[in-house]
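Recap slide: HAD-IC family P-type ATPase, sequence and predicted structure.
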Amino acid sequence: MSIDADAQRDTGLTEAEVAQLRAEGKSNDVPARASRSVRDIVRGNVFTRINAILGVLLIIVLSTGSVIDGMFGLLIVANSGIGIIQEIRAKRTLDRLAIVGQNKPQVRREGVSKQIPPDEVVLGDVVELGPGDQIVVDGEVIETASLEIDESLLTGEADTVHKLEAAQVLSGSFVVSGSGAYRATKVGRDAYAAKLAEEASKFTLVKSELRSGIDKILKFITYLMIPAGALIIYNQLFSSGQALRPALNGMVAALVPMVPEGLVLMTSIAFAVGVIRLGQRQCLVQELPAIEGLARVDVVCADKTGTLTENGMRLSELVLIDQPDSGSATAALASLARDDPRPNASVQAVGEAYPDAPGWTQTAVAPFSSAKKWSGLSYGEHGNWLLGAPDVLLDASSDIARRAEDAGSHGLRVLLLASSDRSVDHPEAPGVVTPRALVILEQKVREDARETLDYFASQHVEVKVISGDNAVSVGAVAGSLGLPGGNAPIDARDLPEDSDRLADAVAGSTTFGRVRPDQKRAMVGALQSRGHTVAMTGDGVNDVLALKDADIGVSMGSGSAATRAVAQIVLLDNKFATLPYVVGEGRRVIGNIERVSNLFLTKTVYSVLLAFLIGLSGVLSQIFHFEPIPYPFLPRHVTIAAWFTIGIPAFVLSLAPNNERARSGFVSRVMRLAVPSGLIVGSCTFISYLLVYAGPNASETQVTQASTTALITLIMIALWVLAVVARPYNWWKILLLAGSVGGYLLLFAIPFCRTFFKLDPSNVGATTSALVIGGIGIVLVEVAHRFGSALRNRQYKT
């Protein structure tokens, strides 16, 4: 299909041409990067290493004809089913929110400009650009008004690039200042950003200590299982002299509990439920581990406008300077507002106050940028007009600058309307500036701002206000909200360039004004250099670099397309007050995963220890010629042992409230409780079994009583581990513990359950020894926990 480019320069494509191009497959059909298909989700949850291990063990048990002992096979169904359901729910939530928060480019068709989804852009479309817009497809510039593009997300080069007509623009870059339009020359997978995405991983995730920690633990467990499994297989099949069926059942019973089958499942559920809960608050999580990152945040850097104050403004007062009447000033303001193709909130407020423009013809334009802090238009014989920051355009010691600062000290936003002696696009602009009027704007402080700041203070999270506005104005707003240090704002133009001195200055203050985009980025890096985990919130194009470098970038839904593209989290409701819920959800997810990890890994440790001890007895029996000891449990025993000590409690605890800030060292903290607890459970269970084991010639009743004795000891100590993990207590945790104890009492009390699960606590002497050894184990677990807690607290203080 041939399209006349010159004819389409102003009006864009026709609907017929668009339909034909779409039919030819020349549309921007790049799939969403963060979405897994349902097929991938099912495959990812079914074909796992843990399911494979359990599946092999299930086949072995079923081959012996013992269907009851294969109950652990239900874990495969549960692991897969629950994981699939929760992840699909999370996917649907993310997909729905992604559509709401989607960057919709402004496309010109048949002379009419309209917003469309990015996948509806076709080859040859004319896409209009303004400050903050992200370029969605590659193209060639056909219109430009001081158009400056930042390509740092693609090239790493932070300097902006001035684009003239016929210049190439690449998808993934964004507009810093100016306006223009470009014609799409490459769409879909041919576009530059799409090619980069294909070369990289489909899912680019933030760093996750939790994910890497669990992977490390699983790898360690795999290494332990190999020798332990070999020993138990040797003992059960060759040394113990048992028949094949009981030998295989004992081998499976030893190997099944070594697998932390619920750990990965509970982690997936916790993340998925976190995504769904945040989605209900109109919070789009673009990268799942961002939930974990927020749990570790100890510094939140926030802008003033749109964060502490509402986005909208209104003109409060126009203060004329050395003018007998307001005619020329109001005419200039009306013209500046009318001729700005993408007015920001300040210019919109001016336009609402002065809607009747005089009809001047512009001859030159200088778009606003965060670096220079002013914008301007030249109108030939009507003069060169500037609108910007008084403390930038004027001598700070002048009377007008002092008047502006006084107004700003009351939390007002002040702009200077001025005229210049040269065209605004002159290389030496603004030249000689003549002040004409102070434009005083009111910003409404958000009703929930103080409550939000109080929450972060209570959670020991520092809030630092980093704004491009006048420092005095920023300090007035921050101070009125009770932010510590808000009344002593720092002007970023006075900040040192040296990284160490900058880190000291940023760490020692909370409120900063007149901050340039490159300084925002440097300040985030300075805080990170001092060991802080930094979340950066923003909505403007000047926030992009800092958002990209922060540990967690948070964008407002109404923010520029560029900020939404680089942020890990988008607050679609544009409320800073939503952030505490996001942080709280992150803490809940991470804290609860750590809790349940303690339970699953304790089970793994005591299972490996029991397997080693039993297997070692088989090896030593061959050397010293004594009867080997068979594994004490049937697969059904290890299944019920996990019901109320791990399975149900872990599910409840993984979804419970938890406000403790996440800290680094996940693996060491978990192992500090799980290893000693597991060693105590395994040792006490083995001793309890040895005391009542009646030898290879024991009757079936004696074998059942010995297994029951060991099981009672194991359950007692494992329940206490659960009690330790559940601290601090509240009513529902006490109910959970009571229900777990009650569940086991019913299993041992109901005759049908005793028969079905082969339990026999009727031997008073054996049961008494089980209770005594279990009590000793409880004391040892408590001592180990208190010692570990004291050691951890000492490390935190240091």
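The two ends are 71 Å apart (CA to CA).
Residues 579-624 form the longest helix (46 residues).
(End of recap.)
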